[in-house]
From TrEMBL:
The keyword Secreted does not apply. It comes from the Bacteria. The keyword Iron applies. NCBIfam families: double_cubane. Signal peptide: none annotated. It comes from Clostridium muellerianum. The lineage of its organism: Bacteria, Bacillati, Bacillota, Clostridia, Eubacteriales. Keywords: Iron, Iron-sulfur, Metal-binding. Its cofactor is [4Fe-4S] cluster. GO terms for molecular function: hydro-lyase activity; iron-sulfur cluster binding. This is 2-hydroxyacyl-CoA dehydratase.
Length: 382
């Protein structure tokens, strides 16, 4: 697997190295749509010939600037995202012709109001629950509104055929990424969880999707072949950890690294950008708008109440990945995920009978010492 670390690291660098690429695409006349959340149906954007790109802030760097306008006791993801926008330090936000937000939390909703003063922003209004016909109708109407907004903004027509083609390609990408991250099911896994995360993260900043799919398929094949020959970087004694909770970014890599430096290996990510989103396909046999509505409405996010989908997904993943322990990552001031920790702990420890650890953190690196102590003790006790 000599060449694999280099390939994996290349994916890990795609966000940083993609700045020039996105500028070149803009110069060629391509439209760019910044998105914040797994709820945003990227297929609608792609069907318009535009490029959907993630603009969630994942760094502490611009937070001090954001706090000139936003309260300090706010989620670091929100502050980082807004800080990058007002300082023009994030090229992806800067180059976005349109930004699509969604009402997953009150902090984001109010931040979008402020962001709308400097960028063109469209906000999708999420229902409060995944259950019932009213929720379905509301979300379907929001997807139609997004389609109409993109068409008007970019002076294009999104046909049913465009949507079907975009859905098909996105499904192939999901299946390819699923095959890759399911390497974590192997006993022991052939690569670290940090390696899996780098590829999942980098895929979101790959603009040639067909090339991305080809590269990841080859990578998965090569890893499996090397594994059969006895090449593996994970000890069989490593404790198998599932990470759940809030979205993960570069600033929260401190948690994954600490787990894997203390006798654990992260085999599964049940976060935004992980199984929660990638693990489910869009139905290609029905009307594309209905198919997108069903897929995106049922994401197991804590903004929904009740969030039974998350319990069902966690139960399935714990069994399939033969998980030894669960680490629940909560970003400071993310109230919905924080409130859910009680239910998740009860489920994991009493129904699945495995250890659980909740970690509340922010984007600073000042808690690394505490993390080493807590995570080290957690892994050791398993």
């Amino acid at each position: 697997m000599n060449e694999l670390p280099e390939q994996i690291n290349e994916f890990g660098e795609k966000r940083r190295k993609g700045f020039v690429t996105i500028k070149n695409l803009k110069d060629e006349g391509k439209k760019v749509v910044g998105v914040f959340c797994a709820f945003t149906p990227k297929e609608v954007i792609a069907a318009a010939g535009a490029i959907p790109i993630g603009i969630c802030g994942t760094s502490e760097e611009p937070i001090q600037d954001a706090e000139k306008h936003l309260p300090r006791n706010l989620c670091p993801l929100i502050k980082s995202s807004y800080g990058f926008a007002i300082t023009n330090k994030c090229p992806y936000t800067y180059f976005s012709d349109l930004i699509v937000g969604e009402t997953t939390c009150d902090g984001k909703k109010k931040m979008y109001e402020m962001l709308g003063k400097i960028k063109s922003v469209h906000v999708m209004q999420l229902p409060q629950t995944t259950k019932g016909e009213d929720s379905y109708k509301l979300w379907k109407n929001e997807i139609i509104k997004l389609k109409e907004k993109v068409e008007k903004e970019f002076n294009v027509e999104i046909t049913e055929e465009n949507l079907k083609d975009a859905i098909k390609l996105k499904n192939i990408e999901r299946e390819t990424l699923k095959e890759f991250y399911e390497l974590g099911k192997m006993m022991p896994p052939p690569i670290l969880g940090m390696d899996i995360l780098k590829v999942l993260r980098g895929a979101a900043f790959s603009y040639d999707k067909e090339e991305e799919i080809k590269t990841i398929r080859n990578m998965t094949k090569n890893i499996k072949e090397a594994y059969k020959k006895g090449e593996n970087k994970v000890l069989s004694s490593a404790k198998r950890i599932l990470v759940t909770g809030c979205p993960l970014g570069e600033s929260t890599d401190k948690i994954i690294n600490t787990i894997e430096q203390n006798g654990g290996v992260v085999v599964c990510f049940e976060n935004c950008g992980g199984v929660k989103d990638i693990g489910f396909l869009v139905d290609e046999t029905i009307d594309p708008i209905d198919a997108l509505t069903s897929k995106y409405l049922n994401i197991a996010c804590s903004c929904m109440t009740p969030n039974d989908n998350r319990i069902e997904l966690l139960s399935q993943l714990i069994d399939e990945y033969k998980v030894d322990g669960v680490v629940d990552v909560i970003l400071q001031a993310c109230h919905t995920y924080n409130v859910e920790t009680y239910r998740i702990k009860e489920f994991v420890t009493k129904e699945k009978n495995i250890p659980y650890l909740s970690i509340e953190t922010d984007y600073s690196q000042t808690d690394i010492g505490q993390l080493k102590t807590r995570i080290g003790a957690f892994v050791e006790m398993i």
